[in-house]
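Students often ask why we bother encoding 3D structure as a string. The short answer is that it lets us treat folding as translation between two languages. Here is a chain of 465 residues written in the first language.
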Amino acid sequence: MPPPSTPAGTHAIVHGGSMAGLMSAGVLSRHFERVTLVERDPFPDGPRPRKGVPQAQHVHGLLTRGMDILANIFPGIREDLEADGAEFLDAVGSVATFGAGSWRPRFRSGVSAASVSRLVLEWVVRRRLQALANVRIRDEREAVGLKTSGDRTRVTGLLIQAPGGGQEDTLEAELVVDASGRGSRTPQWLEALGYPRVEETRIHVDVGYTSRLYRKPPDFAPGWQSLAISPELPKERRLGIIQDIEDNRWLVLVGGWLGEAPARADDAAFLEFARGLTQPHLYEAIKHAEPLGPIHLYRFAHNQRRHYERMSRFPEGLAVVGDAFCSFNPIYGQGMSTGALQAEALGECLRSGARGATHRYRQRAGQLLEGPWLMATAGDLGFPEVEGKRPPGFGLMNWYGNRFQQLVGYDEEAMSTFVRVQHMLESPAAMFSPRMVLKVLTVRPDKAAQTPGPQPLAASSTRAA
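And here it is in the second language, the structure alphabet:
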């Protein structure tokens, strides 16, 4: 798509080739004559892993709202993803879900979600970005500092060099976007320029998970395309997911909170952990399935939110997106979609004019993060062992949330509401409508226990358990 006839500026830079960075560059291509994406890693020519995305070979979920934004940035990308093997599944009807102690009802919800590996998703998005005439990608270049005006009130460019050292280059720009992830150095760079240290909130959850690819058993027809077994928080800590991905494969993840994860990256430990889930379906499905590669481990220490929106002084011409702004417990699957919301918000702020756009964006981003942050941290703070400040009324909200999850176990309207909130199509306030409150107050956990689980339970094979 060509840049608009009255762009916000001549040049914008995004440093960090994360999904948030790729989407931000796509948005900026409509507002600037030129956009440069700077990435430390060499970008592979295909759906292959790279060092800067250590979690890329694990289960990822691009929520429906995030996919809608991505399709607005890159029209036709759904068709591109399908051409590369992705499927769009009904988030309720195609997924067998066990949570809060019961199986969830399954029906056609109308909420469509992409079922695809992170590697293919990122490759298709990067391919679309590379096709834009006014976007230049400079991989194998590391951002090492900000260039500013003489009074340091405006960012005017980015200093880059080859990873590990070498000659520094200066890229001049009217806008610099930090999409460099949790390890972002923007806090240190701002301090060095005389700005206060950004306030940061951390909630330690010590999440660990392990993933492995399997060939889908040809003789197994369980009636679901993906499977999710979640714990009843905070009594239980283990979860397991089978994600149906391209090339007739399953991506299988097992793990949990507070150190509850397989101890070793070997076949026996993986299967034994899966056997210990609250329901046998995942273990039974994979115990005879053919593994297609190594086991991958990942640890996530803490939720991390940098409160840039609270800073009283902040340079114009600088914006922070994605995990560099706020990084959630990945189990809740909100990261990529929240990055999409931020990229969209940045574009909306630029449409109001370049002057003051990054200040407007900071405030807007701070507001849109409130809902996802509350959703992610509410579950984590339900564990007594997790340290962190509980918001006012946390006990009551936790009680309500637990009862709502019991209601979801048998009530289709509640399940539909929950999945729409989960996929960011509705505000969490939808779970507190008068009708939902009345249902929650009269919930019947015994009815949830009657919701049947999927059949058949196991795939047959000669592979040893």
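Translate back mentally: The chain has 13 helices and 19 strands. Keep this in mind for the problem set.
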